[in-house]
Amino acid sequence: MAPSLKLVLVVLTVCSVFGVYITYRKATSSWTLVGLRTSGTLSVTLDSKVPMPPPTHLSALSRMNRTTTTVTPRKDRPKPQPPVLTEPPFIGDSYMSEDLPTQTNCSNRIRSRISATEFGARFLDRIPVLQWAKHVSLELHQRLRQYPGTHGWGGISFEDLNSTLSFLNSTANSQMFDDWQERRNRSQCIRCAVVGNGGILKGSGKGSEIDRHDYVFRTNGAITKGFESDVGSRTTHYIFSTNTLRNSMATYSRVGFRGPPISEETRYVFLPDHDRDYLLMKAAATKTLVSRGRDRGRDPKKLFGNDVSKKKLKMFHPDFVRYIRNRFLRSRILKGRYRNIYRPSTGATMLLAALHTCDQVSAYGFMTSNYGNYSDHYYDRNFHKVGFFANHDLKLEMVLWQQLNEAGLIHLYTGK
Fold first, then answer.
1. What's the CA gap between 314 and 173, in Å, rounded?
2. Nearest to residue 399, comparing CAs of 353, 391, 323, 407?
3. CB atoms < 10 A from the CB of 362, how many?
């Protein structure tokens, strides 16, 4: 072959090989670019329509499925909520509410003044203080049976509850002052004297002042005979539980306490601690003997007299007692081993009931900061220090009386 022909063939061969190489590089580049376009959103891009995730999300994004195309911005995610603080189940800070008609037009009554004090947020003006026939229902029993003692209907069957409260079926049983409209020379405001049994009353000379009130509340071992000049002689409302009444009769009989005061104007207000209160209430309302239990066969007429009528019988509502414990007398005892037996004292229940029903309240014979100067009771023959018990917080009650006095909601007798 001629040299010129060989040279032409070599040139053609080199050109062909070079052309194939160029084509191969273009094809390879094309495949690589296509792969990048279809590889997902993890690729870094400067396109402003696809915002970059913040750096803190990169590790999480690397674990996501590579076909994911969107990420919820942090600002749109639900924020974690703080834990909801709940009360222990036995507290039960919810209560029955009802319309309670006012009996006076007193312009200076406690209810019109309390909202401007530190107690305004605690005070419920629609809570029933007393329970009666219209409060009985299976629904309410279902709610209240989880609370024992004075705070609910725990341990009381619906049948026993219904058979007792069905006799408290007049409006007189629902009102603390059922005879107000019948009273002669009544004042514009319902003025109440609430009398405890504290030794501070001995030698006080407050008897006539106490008796001048429209109503006079007393409790437990309320001895008046022989002490009239200091504590008065009238009793319009006697507050007790069957247990505290029996204990008072056993303990203070030596100084003259034989049982509840009896008079035409006296009303008997039960603080129901367990079923024996309901059984005694039913026996008194029906004028029969107590049917069963610890007081079986006992005659209520020996306690309340022969002419006691149903309208004279009243009973605290368990919602009210639990409410004053929770909102006025929430003691540290509730955090300890005696929490199941703690309740406001009978005297405290009496005074706080007056705060919720009277227009004006004067308190006598309650513990004050100088209690160490006085004997436990005004009728003590010898000096006895004030006794403290696991089921009450008397010092907390003392502080509450002082606060109510300073707020102008009660007038507290603090001694001469």
1. 5
2. 407
3. 20
SS3 306: coil
Rounded CA separation 121/108 (Å): 19
Task: Give 385: exposed, middle or buried? Use CB within 10 Å, 0-12, 13-18, 19+.
Answer: exposed
Long-range contacts of 398-404 (CB under 8 A, 24+ apart): 398/366, 398/367, 398/368, 398/369, 398/371, 400/328, 400/329, 400/348, 401/351, 401/363, 401/366, 401/367, 401/368, 402/368, 402/369, 403/118, 403/119, 404/119, 404/355
The conformation of residue 316, written as its DSSP 8-state character, comes to B
Spatial strand order of the sheet with 313-315 comes to 313-315, 267-270, 237-240, 215-219, 191-195, 360-364, 411-412
Q: What percent of the chain has pLDDT over 90?
A: 73
Question: What is the token pair recorded at 190?
Answer: 């319902």
3 state DSSP class of 12? helix
**CA–CA gap between residue 317 and residue 174 (Å, rounded):** 10
Question: DSSP class of residue 340?
Answer: T
The token pair at 274 is 């367990």
What DSSP line would sit under 276-314, residue for residue?
HHHHHHHHHHHT----SSTTTT--THHHH-TT--GGGEE
**Tokens linked to 163:** 């058979």
Q: Are 135 and 174 in contact (CB under 8 A)?
A: no
Model confidence pLDDT, tens digit, residues 82-132: 544 456 777 899 999 998 888 999 999 999 999 999 999 999 999 999 999
Residue 86: CB atoms within 10 A of its CB come to 7
Tell me the two tokens of residue 11: 């040139």
- At residue 121, the 3 state secondary structure works out as coil
Task: Report yes or no on whether pTM surpasses 0.85.
Answer: no
